[in-house]
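PROTOCOL LOG
Step 1. Enter all chains and additional molecules of the complex.
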Amino acid sequence: MKLSENRISENRTRAKPRSTRVRPVLRRFPVPLRVIGYTAVAMVGLLYLMPFVIQLVTGFKTDPDAASHPLGLIPVTPTTAAYQRLFGLSQAGDGVPFLRWLGNSTVIAVVVTASRVLFASMAGYALARLRFPGRTLLFGFLLAFMAVPPVALLIPKFLVLNTFGLFDTYTGMIVPLMVDAAQVFIMKQFFESIPREVEEAARVDGAGVFRTYWSVVLPMARPALITVTILAFQSSWNEFTHFLVSTQSSQYETLTTGLARMVSGGLGGGTQYPLKLAAALLATLPVAALFFCFQRYFVQGANAGAVKE
Amino acid sequence: MFPRTTSHPRPAARSRAGGGPRTADSPGTPDAPGEPGPAAAPRAKPAPRVGRRGEGIWGWLFVSPMVTILGLFMVLPILMALWVSLLNWDGQSNPFSTDAQFVGLDNYRDLLTRDGLDRTLFATSLRNNLYYVLLTVPLQTGVALTLALIVNQKLLRGRGALRTAFFFPSVTSSIAVSTVFLFLFQGSGAVNTALSWIGVKGPNWFNDPRGVLSLLLGGLGIVDPDDPSGALAGHSFLGLSWFEWLSGPSVAMCTIILLAVWTTSGTFMLIFLAALQDIPRELEESAAIEGVSRFQMLRYVILPALRPVLFLVLTLGLIATWQVFDQVYVMGQGAPGNTTLTPAFLSYASAFDNADFGQGMAIAFILLALILTMTVLQRFLLRERTPRPRRTR
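Step 2. Run joint prediction.
Step 3. Record the structure below.
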C-alpha cells in the first residue's frame, strides 16, 4: 500500500527533511507554564470527548437513573435494556424498528458509495484527460453546481421525484445521491496531478480509452479513490435531508430519519433517553470505526473540501 | 485547464510511432461506432483538437452518468421550482397542469412586501439565522484557529490524540450529535448539573425563547425584556419590531450555536493546520533569531501568513451557516416561540407541514440567491488574493 500510493506524492515531499522530531523554533515554555498549558489543553480535549462518553454510559442506564444522574459516569443499575429493545430482543421494542433502519442505511450507503466512486472517477478522468467538445463548459457547470446549497434543493428535489413517480421509493432515495459534484472535482484534481507518461505508454501499446482508464489509471489513483470512498460513505451514511423529502412511509426510514422522528417527539411514554442515545451511538459507530482506521483520508477529504470552494 | 502545449506534440508523435496497424493491436477495445478510422487521421498536420481516436465519444460516455444525474436532480429541480414558486400549489395535483393556480410573484410579495403572518415569520427566521451566523462564524473560526495552534505545537505530547478528539465530532451524523446535545442541555441535564457545581443556575435551554441580548441589557437595567416600550418597540422592519430584531438569539438558539461550533471547529482546525505547516520554517527561524517573543511570532509572522486561509474559513463558514437545518429539525423545529426558526426550516415547514409549496419554493429561492451571492463574492475575492499558485500542477 505504502509503496504504490506514495509514488506520486513522494516527489513532492522528498524535499522536506524526513526526521520525525522537528526541533522547535522557539524555546520550550518554563515548567510551571507547561503544567498549566497541559491542564488547559486536557480540559479542552475533555470538552470534545465528554459528550460521547456520557452518551456511551447513558445507553446502559435505566430511564430514572439517566434523568436523575445525567452526569454520572457509572450507571447505578447497569442495564442493556435499551440495546435489547433496539435489536428486538425484548417485548417492548414497539415503534423502534431499529434493524429496519440499519438495513436501509447500510444498503443505501453501500450502493451510493460504490456508484459515487465509479461515476466520480469516470467523470473526473474525462474532465482531466479526455478531449471532447463541451468539456470546458461542463467543468464550468460542475464548479457552479458545487456552489448550489443542498438546503435550497430540498423541495425542488421532492418536486422532481413526485413528478416522476419516484417519491417514497428506494430508487428515489438512491439515484439522486449517486453523483456528488465535489467528489468529481477531487478526482479531476487528482488525475491532473499524476504524470501522463504512463497513460501515453499504455496508449502506444494499443490500449483503448476504457482499457487505459480501467487498468492503468485507476490503480494509480488508489489514494484518491480511498479518499472519495470514505467521503462518499460518510456523507451517504449521515445523509438526512434528502431522505426526509424523498420518503414518507416508515418502511423507508433510515438511521437518520428514524432517529430524528424518534427524538423530535414520535415516541410516547417519557423521554427514554437511554434508548435514544443508544440508537444514536449505534448510528455513529460505522463512521467512527472508519474514522479511527483511516483518519488521514478524512483529513485529506477535509482539506480537499477547502480547496473546492 | 492544463497547458495545451504539453499535450499537443504527443498524439502526433504517437501516430508516427504507432503507424499503420493500430487497429490490429487494440483488439480488446470496442471501437466507438461511427468514428473515422485511424487512416482518416492526417499525419502531417499538427494534432487536431480532438486528438485521439474516438476520444470525443468516450469523453461524453464517461461523463454521461454525471450529466444525467446532475441534470435530472439539480438543473431540472431548479427549473421546475422556479415555476412552482409562481404557483399556489398544495403538493397534490400536477403542478404543470391547469389545476394549479398561477399567482405570479405573490409568493415573493407575501414574504417581502405584504404585511402579514408570512412576512413576520420570514423576517423572524432571517433574524434568527442572522444571529446564528454572527455568533457561529467568529466563534468557530476562533476556536478552530486556537485548536490548530495547540495541535501544531511540535513538543506537545499526545498531539495526535488531541487532533483526533477535536476532529471526531465533525465526522459524526448531525442527527446523532443533536440527540446527544438534547440530552446534555435538558433542564436538569448534564450541563446544568455541571453549572450548579460552580453555583450557576442554568436556564431551561430548549424552552427559553428570551433573547440573550435583551436579557443582558435587562440585567443591566437598561431595558425591560418582559415589557418592551419606546421607539424600538414602536417601529418595525419587515413586520418585525426593532425590539425583536435587536433582542439577540434566544437561549435555545444559543445551544444550537454551541453545537455548531463544537462540530465544525474540527474541520476548520484541519484547514488551519495544513496552512500552519505550510509556513516556511526559515521564516519562523529568522524571526526567532531576531529574538521575537511568542506573541510577536504569532502576531507578526503566523497570522499574516494565515490570512488567505482565514478568509477562506470565514467565507466557508458564512456560506454553511445560512443553511442550518438538521440541528433545527431535531432540536427545536422552530420552538420555542419561533426563535429557532431558520429560512431553510421555514421553507421545509411551509411546503410539507402547511402544504404551501409555492411559498416554500419562494423562500428556498431567496435563500439560494443569498448564498450564491456570498459564494460569488468569495470566489471573486479569493481569486484576487491568491495569485494562482495551483495552476502550476
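Step 4. Note key features.
Chain B touches chain A through 129 residues (CB under 8 Å).
The radius of gyration of chain B is 29 Å.
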